[in-house]
Amino acid sequence: MFRNFDEILELVKNDTQKTIAVAMAEDADVLKALEKARSMGLAKSFLTGNAEKIYELMSTHGIDKNNYEVINSISEIESIESAVAQVKSGKAQVLMKGLCSTSVFLKGVLDKNNGLRSGKVLSHLAVFESPQYHKLFMLSDAAMNIAPDLSTKIVITENAISAALKLGYEKPKIAIISAVEKINPDGIPSTVDAAIISKMNERNQIKNAIIDGPLAVDNALSEQSCIVKGLNTQVGGDADILIVPNIETGNACYKLLTILGNAKVAGIIVGATAPIVLTSRADSDESKFLSIVTALKAS
Fold it and tell me: In this structure, are 35 and 137 located in the same domain?
């Protein structure tokens, strides 16, 4: 269990310094996040993109260009291919999306010959520090898998478990989210998927976690809600990970937590051969830095 991002940061400070490869690094918030990571001794960076724009932004924000290796790229695709190649070759341990579009970036990641495919479904994992919750919690999938079927939800769950174990969790508590906590096969099919995944965990088909579902969001995050509804659950009110039924649910939760809930957030892609920092171009440099910290620990 982590109470906040500072606890993850302290662990990363003690790890061996790693290298981040950034595709299209001509983004001020990305560069500020990378500089913070470098100045703290967390990671070095290999930057691809328009070198002239990168150096101009570095100068504007007081970043010494001599601390970075920059390879000029004449196109978005070339920049992504160059960054991916650094990770694939082992010269970098983490891939980060810069100013490039998500679709083109992921196409480079998933390239059959030169990408970072692992044979698994890739999924987005968001980590939140909310002033209203007693510890960090994760949410998947808010950005990649639009309407996952049962098989995909199982892999999304396993990806989240794998990332949590790398972060240092021993047995994360996972809530499979739906609108209600009762199984409703005709009205709300996601309740059935949740029940199946929970039973698979009970039968040891999904390991290294404690899983319960279906649970509504209030059940997952509020012990009082479970008491009122008479739920006997190891996960309710103490969930480490929320697995949402579809991208609409995940995306809405993500944005409500950050915009109205004042939650800090990190976002990474898991399921590839290396962790990938993938944040919105509108995310702050703080969010990008926290995503770097999370990816470094998950690598």
Answer: no
